[in-house]
Amino acid sequence: MKPRRQPRPRADKIRARITLAAAVVLVAGLDLGTKEWAGRALNDGSITNFGPLQLRLAFNPGVAFSLGDTLPRAALLGITGLIVVALAFVAFWFTRSAAWPGVLALAALLGGAVANVLDRAADGLVTDYLHTGWFPTFNLADVFVVTGAAALAAISWRASATTTAEAT
What we know:
168 residues; mainly alpha
């Protein structure tokens, strides 16, 4: 059986955590910048077609798929804020032993979540602008959240499959 991955040496932990923090800031900044752009460029109701993807401005009072859109604004912000804080603690702890792909996947997930919470904090709404016609309108932060979560699932599955193969 393969032993569990050992914690990194101190310098590597610090480097991984700095990378995590920088990537979270980069992802959140990129998303918030594109939301600002979308709010200005698409505020006249215009729609820009790029084949299967359209740019169309929308505002979501809920979370994914507008769930919770009837909750009080403060409650929704508080709940999502607590989830993001918990995720940040998990990410900080995880970097003590995670390989770089895991650190970057966590950064994508956390950066997207932070960006959506910051966007919601301003007026209780999240700015969405990517539309496919068959799926709810979403934003770049949502792409980062889903991609980061999928990458973490794949990393976990691969590690589990490797451990199982080595045990037999």
